[in-house]
């Protein structure tokens, strides 16, 4: 009986970890539907701005919006896990007024973006490579996962973060909290599966 109980607990941990890792690596694409349901813009044109979609590096899609301050910095808006650049459109007019351009990248594994989300390491590399292509001062704004990226790249420009993840483990705990799931043991076992 004890052996059966231990086997059940191990199976529960393995399946829970597998589900978390799978979900974390390919977040739900909810931003477009949420914006439509609430009558919000789904791209910069609907928000009143002209934009281009650029692709950098290994398929990093970026909305590029021209700012109103030619001598201003380049502002990069980094969305949270499970979100997309659509969620950053509400802030766009505030940033275009003081930036030469505003960039809104779609992080790995989000929406139609290639690859799987790694909860930080590869996303930091992607944004670092994007920053290599920019001239002049840079301002990074990030929320959640985007905040983690902004803090990691703060040496490249100024970073302004909201509810930034402390690390991948913190991110996994927050992902679990969104689904009212217990953080232990899955955040710890899930952390082992990410680089």
The CATH topology: Rossmann fold
Mean pLDDT: 91
Query: How far apart, in Å, are the first and last alpha carbons?
Result: 37 Å
Strand arrangement in the largest pleated sheet: 1-2-4-3-5-6
Write down the CATH class.
Answer: Alpha Beta
Number of strands: 6
Q: Helices and strands, in N-to-C order?
A: HHEEEHEHEHEHH
Counting helices, strands and paired strands, the structural category is alpha/beta
**Radius of gyration from CA coordinates:** 18 Å
Q: Number of helical segments?
A: 7
Strand content: 15-25%
Descriptive key words:
elongated; 6-stranded mixed sheet; Rossmann fold; 6 strands
Verbal overview:
- By secondary structure, the chain is an alpha/beta fold.
- It has one domain: Rossmann fold (3-Layer(aba) Sandwich), CATH 3.40.50.
- 38% of the residues lie in helices and 17% in strands.
- A 6-stranded mixed β-sheet has the order 1-2-4-3-5-6.
- Helix 1 (2-25) packs across helix 7 and helix 6 (168-178) crosses helix 7.
- The longest helix is centred in the N-terminal third of the chain and has 24 residues, at 2-25.
- The termini are far apart.
- The model has no long low-confidence stretch (mean pLDDT 91).
């Amino acid at each position: 009986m004890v052996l059966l109980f231990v086997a059940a607990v191990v199976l529960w941990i393995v399946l829970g970890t597998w589900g978390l890792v799978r979900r974390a690596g390919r977040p739900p694409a909810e931003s477009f539907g949420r914006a439509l349901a609430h009558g919000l813009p789904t791209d910069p044109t609907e928000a009143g701005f002209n934009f281009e979609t650029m692709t950098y590096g290994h398929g990093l899609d970026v909305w590029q919006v021209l700012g109103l301050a030619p001598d201003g910095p380049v502002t990069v808006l980094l969305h949270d896990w499970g979100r997309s650049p659509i969620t950053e459109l509400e802030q766009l007019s505030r940033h275009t007024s003081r930036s030469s351009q505003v960039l809104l990248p779609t992080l790995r594994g989000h929406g139609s973006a290639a690859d799987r989300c790694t909860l930080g390491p590869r996303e930091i590399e992607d944004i670092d490579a994007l920053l290599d292509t920019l001239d002049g001062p840079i301002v990074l704004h990030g929320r959640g996962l985007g905040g983690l990226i902004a803090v990691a790249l703060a040496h490249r420009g100024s970073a302004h973060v909201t509810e930034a993840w402390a690390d991948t483990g913190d991110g996994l705990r927050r992902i679990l909290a969104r689904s009212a799931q217990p953080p232990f043991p899955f955040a710890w076992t899930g952390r082992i599966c990410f680089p």
